[in-house]
């Protein structure tokens, strides 16, 4: 089951079954979290607007563009059918990969201390 | 046929129970029972979420909706898959990082209010019940077709409901989240394999997907209707163009101008509020893992639903010609059109694989039902056992008592849903709703998307959300959605009726607006900064990742030695 290999330590501070994560010696500064939150929110809202635009566009095209419902694309399927039966799933997946990759990159760069794992960083400066 | 089917079923049920026993929680801890120790990996969790999510509504209902309504039926599949995009963008990672047991637990802790937790429990239980009943109906319909006979004096439909409920209740009670996760993941792979097999045999028989869509679109859509005890084919009116008939490949077979959009909004918002799906994110090891799990889910969902749409089309195209020489088809069709659209994938299985093919597809349908019932029962148990019993009834409960409270909750909710399913007669409802299973699930989505999702998203992304605002928002969202659903039959299913049947487009914005307005007049929790760090910070994620690297490093070093 543990295919990721990650085994975070959890503890129950008041012994009432309220398990919370133990961040160990890792720490997030409130200002960093706030900046990251705003950036990730921009990423999420931007991708959501693209998603909403495409999903709503399909029925709207149905109502407004005759070719969308009557034209023929692949062996007799209408553009509307091709989009609903397969195209939208591909679009959802591509959008998800893009959004997840960008959000992960934002969090990696803006939170945490990438220098921490650098050898010798804990040494006293000369 | 009955012997083979029963043997397959018995094998399946035994496998499920053995899995539950082998993977039962280690020790009596709610952390293990409800969350599988928060060690479920990305791919395993994605498969388990798919097993949880792809219920009878997906396995039988989507193909049935396409079979009955053509292009308009495809929108069920689109909406079900699309629902995970907002989950990925707005919910998965922060929800997991906050790390509680359930939606009510998350809202109660985030807004520092027991009242919020209790209101959320009420809404969650309503969602779970309205989702559970159609699953039980699906199991009854499947047993009817697969076995055709009841046991202990029960009808075949009642037998299916009772057997599936008893088996899966036993799995959840014994296996908890750990056993359920593994069986759900395996069950999803089985479902996918059944669809892939069916698609291969159908296509290799000469079925042309694009060609069939074009051919089906040349003739008006028809549906069986019963008048004075006699079945006949009636035409499906075009809801976009009054007076004209509907066609398979064109819009209008099911929805008017507003219908598609209201359905999509309902399914998208509903997914973000489904308790059994959201609870699965709490089992991920980190927030990033929860996010990547959703990416996998979207890929797998796209594949699954694309196949479901293909099979619905294939059934519509191939069954009329298959009736000749197959007397068993005459009893369930009217001039080549199935009376119950949910039978479409099952009939394809029997046409192309004989009795064994039918048994394989029917087992797939039962598996879809069982895995979803398992997730719903676990979500219900977390809600009753953790949010109500541990928090309010017996705050000093030992872990053993808390786990047993969850198990008792599982049994009570299972009996209730089976009782409701037995009270329904799906055949009499089919004339009212082309695909009753998918329609009933839509009601659960409507309630979840109207009452829970707006408050949920606001609590994650808006610091100003308060307990009073959340209670008001959930209340208004739930009452609006239920009120509109209750009013729908009196208005009909056209025009305004479409909005009433899929009310989230009205209820969710209303719930969000009320939440914001009331929140602005009250104060957020005192320790908001700490809650915000927990929700959007990644310190715990990094700690987990560092531990994992150390563990792997130590393991490798040990092996080298």
UniProtKB/TrEMBL annotation, chain B:
It holds the Pfam family SSF. GO terms for biological process: plasma membrane acetate transport. Keywords: Cell membrane, Membrane, Symport, Transmembrane, Transmembrane helix, Transport. GO terms for cellular component: plasma membrane. Its main location: membrane. One of its GO terms (molecular function) is acetate transmembrane transporter activity. Belongs to the sodium:solute symporter (SSF) (TC 2.A.21) family. This is Cation acetate symporter. It comes from Prauserella muralis. The lineage of its organism: Bacteria, Bacillati, Actinomycetota, Actinomycetes, Pseudonocardiales.
């Amino acid at each position: 089951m543990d295919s990721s290999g990650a085994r975070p330590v959890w503890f129950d501070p008041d012994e009432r079954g309220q398990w919370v994560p133990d961040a160990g010696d890792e720490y997030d500064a409130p200002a960093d979290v706030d900046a990251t939150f705003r950036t990730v929110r921009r990423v999420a809202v931007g991708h959501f607007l693209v998603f909403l635009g495409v999903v709503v566009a399909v029925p709207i095209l149905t109502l407004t563009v005759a070719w969308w419902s009557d034209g023929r694309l692949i062996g007799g399927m209408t553009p509307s059918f091709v989009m609903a039966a397969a195209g939208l799933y591909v679009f959802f997946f591509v959008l998800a990969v893009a959004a997840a990759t960008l959000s992960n990159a934002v969090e990696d760069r803006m939170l945490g201390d990438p220098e921490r794992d650098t050898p010798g960083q804990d040494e006293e400066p000369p | 046929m009955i012997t083979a089917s029963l043997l397959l079923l018995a094998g399946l049920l035994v496998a499920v129970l053995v899995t539950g026993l082998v993977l039962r929680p280690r020790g009596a801890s709610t952390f293990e029972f409800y969350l599988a120790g928060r060690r479920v990996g990305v791919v395993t969790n994605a498969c388990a979420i798919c097993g949880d999510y792809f219920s009878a509504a997906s396995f039988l209902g989507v193909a049935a909706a396409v079979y009955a309504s053509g292009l308009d039926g495809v929108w069920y599949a689109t909406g079900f898959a699309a629902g995970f995009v907002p989950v990925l963008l707005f919910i998965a990672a922060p929800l997991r990082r906050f790390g509680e047991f359930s939606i009510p637990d998350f809202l109660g802790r985030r807004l520092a209010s027991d009242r919020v937790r209790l209101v959320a429990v009420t809404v969650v239980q309503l969602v779970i019940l309205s989702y559970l009943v159609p699953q039980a109906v699906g199991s009854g319909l499947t047993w009817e077709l697969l076995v055709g006979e009841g046991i202990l004096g029960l009808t075949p439909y009642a037998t299916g409901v009772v057997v599936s409920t008893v088996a899966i209740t036993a799995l959840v009670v014994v296996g908890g989240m750990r056993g359920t996760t593994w069986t759900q993941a395996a069950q999803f792979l089985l479902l996918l394999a059944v669809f892939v097999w069916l698609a291969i045999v159908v296509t290799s028989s000469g079925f042309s997907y694009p060609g069939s869509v074009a051919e089906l679109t040349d003739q008006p859509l028809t549906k069986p209707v019963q008048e004075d005890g006699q079945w006949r084919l009636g035409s499906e009116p075009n809801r976009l163009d009054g007076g004209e008939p509907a066609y398979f490949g064109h819009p209008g077979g099911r929805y008017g101008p507003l219908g598609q959009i209201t359905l999509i909004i309902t399914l998208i918002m509903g997914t973000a509020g489904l308790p059994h799906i959201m609870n699965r994110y709490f089992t991920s090891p980190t927030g990033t893992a929860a996010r990547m799990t959703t990416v996998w889910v979207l890929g797998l969902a796209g594949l699954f639903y694309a196949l479901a749409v293909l099979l619905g089309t294939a059934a519509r195209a191939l069954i009329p010609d298959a009736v000749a020489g197959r007397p068993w088809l005459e009893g369930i069709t009217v001039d080549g059109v199935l009376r119950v659209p949910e039978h479409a994938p099952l009939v394809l299985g029997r046409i192309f694989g004989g009795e064994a093919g039918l048994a394989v597809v029917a087992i797939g349908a039962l598996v879809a039902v069982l895995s979803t019932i398992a997730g719903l029962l676990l979500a219900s148990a977390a809600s009753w056992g953790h949010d109500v019993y541990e928090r309010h009834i017996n705050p000093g409960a030992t872990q053993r008592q808390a786990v047993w409270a969850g198990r008792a909750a599982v049994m009570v909710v299972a009996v209730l849903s089976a009782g409701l399913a037995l009270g329904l007669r799906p055949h009499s409802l089919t004339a009212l709703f082309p695909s009753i299973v998918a329609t009933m699930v839509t009601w659960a989505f409507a309630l979840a998307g109207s009452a829970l999702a707006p408050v949920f998203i606001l609590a994650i992304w808006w610091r100003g959300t308060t307990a009073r605002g959340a209670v008001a928002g959930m209340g208004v969202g739930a009452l609006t959605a239920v009120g509109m659903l209750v009013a729908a039959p009196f208005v009909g299913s056209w025009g305004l009726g479409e909005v009433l049947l899929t009310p989230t487009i009205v209820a969710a914005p209303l719930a969000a607006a009320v939440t914001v307005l009331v929140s602005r007049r009250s104060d957020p929790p005192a320790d908001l900064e700490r809650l915000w760090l927990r929700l959007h910070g990644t310190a715990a994620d990094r700690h987990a990742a560092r531990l994992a690297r150390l563990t792997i490093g130590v393991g490798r070093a040990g092996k080298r030695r």
